[in-house]
Amino acid sequence: MIRLEEILDRVENHHPGDNLDLIRRAYIFSAKEHKGQVRASGEPYLTHPLEVANLLAEMKMDAVTVSVGLLHDVVEDTLTTLEKIEELFGPEVAHIVDGVTKISQIQFTSKEEKQAENFRKMLLAMTDDIRVIMVKFADRLHNMRTLAYLSADRREAIARETLDIYAPLANRLGMGKIRGELEDLAFSYLDAKAYQELKDLVAKNRRKHEAFLAEVTRIVQEKMREHDIPCLTESRIKRLYSIHLKLKKQRITIDQVYDLLALRLITDSVKNCYAALGVIHNTWRPVPGRIKDFIAMPRPNMYQSLHTSVIAGGQPFEVQIRTAEMHRIAEEGIAAHWKYKDGKLVADDREDQRVSWLRHLVELQQEMKDPADFLSTLKIDLYPEEVYTFTPKGKVITLPRDASPVDFAYAIHTEVGHTCVGSKINGRMTPLRSKLRNGDIVEIITQPGHKPSRDWLSFVKTSRGRCWKRKRASTSRTQKICSKATNSKQCCPSTVRAKWRICSPQSVMGKFPPNMSFPV
Asked: How many CA atoms lie within 13 A of 225 on its CB side?
């Protein structure tokens, strides 16, 4: 069992002068409340909150978050009340504990409804304090590591929830390490046969692959020294679940996976990232179509890196090149850019995109009453965004793979989506059900008074594209308000007052009142 002093040492190392006494008091209280309780493994229950707290300390979280790790189950699994937590540990700790505590006082009509409401509560708490999801990730990760002791039915249910919700959410928040381990653990329970076969196949070639990576690492380090490019190197073999997805999706063998093996270069500047890419391409032949520039065009989760695939001695491998700061963001995700301000942990300016996504997600989910609808659209929102499209002025709009012009229109603004009647892709008229591809320049054609078509539900990929069903009633009310306001020479700031014709999103924006803002 992990020792409390190890946790305290980690927190002190990352946050010198933080309130270690808070952690000690939380440990004593948790040990007292969980006394006599045991886990399915037969271990004392206290091992779980200790492991969760240790994971949070490894994530470089503060004393408050680590204390919550120790206390996160006391309200749910003991007679302790939230009021008691607030009295002993303060409102900040109590607020986060409440955010991670499942709803148990309400009687639900189904397991699905209970699951939906628990996720809804967690998402709402996340937008107020991101530390809620950090505790949930640590809790879920340790539970997945010890899942073998539960019944087969419970193992499958928890693994499925992990793969459908928690792993994609970790990915959306840029937390690559947590996402990878959650996916592999869930995969091992959901398809044990495929997992073991793939594990054996990778293990069979591990020595050969490790020897290959060691050799190309030596060559890269030598080449970088010749060109005065400072860099650290890391190597890896692709995670099992990622390999499984690629084999299944592309119907290929493991020998055809270009990024099965990867080398990572961490250098000191963006300039040297591109210089290193040139050195790599002068050393080995690049694979056409495999060069990706996520520095110039970051992924929606703020991931930045240069990717290329090259072939050395007949063996393809991927090379990832990034700065130290980019590497930290790729590993820690949203946790990398939270800082203290006026005694509170808040996001810095670079996290606006992630935080705004969370807020939009919560706003959208709060409108849904049906649990099945909530869970299905939540999974849509967590779907990896992979297609990079452009407005005519060059603004990047990121969308899920196979997204349509309708999804693009709703990404610009809800009213643009509602009144969308046609689209131009790269200057050519195209049907609204067309699938967008990387690099497409999209113009949206709108018509005043047009209403969304039910047929759109058969091809839209985003939850925003499906939101019109819930918006119809409110749209009708809005139009009446706008009509009254127009007669009094005023206009409601959340409605449109001008007629639209064939136009780009930028010209659409010009038709709105000056005090209205939305992304273009």
From this structure: 7
Specify the CATH number for the domain of residue 439: 3.10.20.30
Angle between helices 131-145 and 176-190 (to 10 degrees): 40
Task: Provide the token pair at 229.
Answer: 């490019």
514: pLDDT strictly greater than 80: no
C-alpha span between 135 and 143 (Å, rounded): 12
Q: What is the mean pLDDT of residues 65-94?
A: 94
Structural domain count, the chain: 3
Q: Which residues are catalytic?
A: 76-77
pLDDT of residue 506: 45
Q: For residue 348, give every residue at least 6 positions away whose Cβ sits within 8 Å of its Cβ, in sequence order, or none.
A: 337, 338, 339
140 touches 166 (CB < 8 A): yes
Q: Give one DSSP letter per residue of 88-101, joined into a string.
A: HH-HHHHHHHHHHS
> Regarding beta strands 261-267 and 315-323, do their DSSP bridges make them parallel or antiparallel, or are they unpaired?
parallel
173 and 206 within one domain: no
Q: Which amino acid is at 110?
A: S
CB-count burial class (<10 Å; 0-12, 13-18, 19+) for 211: exposed
- 80, 116: one domain: yes
94 and 216 assigned to the same domain: no
Dihedral-angle region of residue 296 (phi above 0 means left; psi in -120 to 50 means alpha; beta otherwise): alpha
Take residue 78 and report the two structure tokens written for it: 């003991």
Please identify, among 287, 302, 331, the residue that sits at the C-terminal boundary of a domain. 331
Q: Is 364 helix (H, G, I), strand (E, B) or coil?
A: helix
**Banded model confidence at residue 295, pLDDT cuts 50, 70, 90:** very high
CATH number, position 95: 1.10.3210.10
Give 357-402 pLDDT, tens digit per residue: 666 666 665 666 666 666 666 666 665 566 878 888 888 788 888 8
In angstroms, what CA-CA distances link 389 with 398, 399, 407, 438? 6, 8, 11, 6
Question: If pLDDT is split at 50, 70 and 90, which confidence band does 468 have?
Answer: low
Tell me if 337 is assigned to some domain.
no
515 in any annotated domain: no
Tell me: pLDDT of 518 over 50. no
Compute the C-alpha angle 152/153/154, nearest 5°.
Answer: 95
Q: 209 and 317: one domain?
A: yes
Cβ contact 401:407 at 8 Å:
no
Rounded to the nearest integer, the mean pLDDT of the chain is: 82
Whether 467 and 493 map to the same domain: the answer is yes
pTM over 0.90: no
Selected residue with higher pLDDT from 124 and 454: 454
Q: Which residues contact 178 (CB under 8 A, 6 or more apart)?
A: 137, 141, 170, 333
Domain-ending residue, one of 138, 155, 189: 189
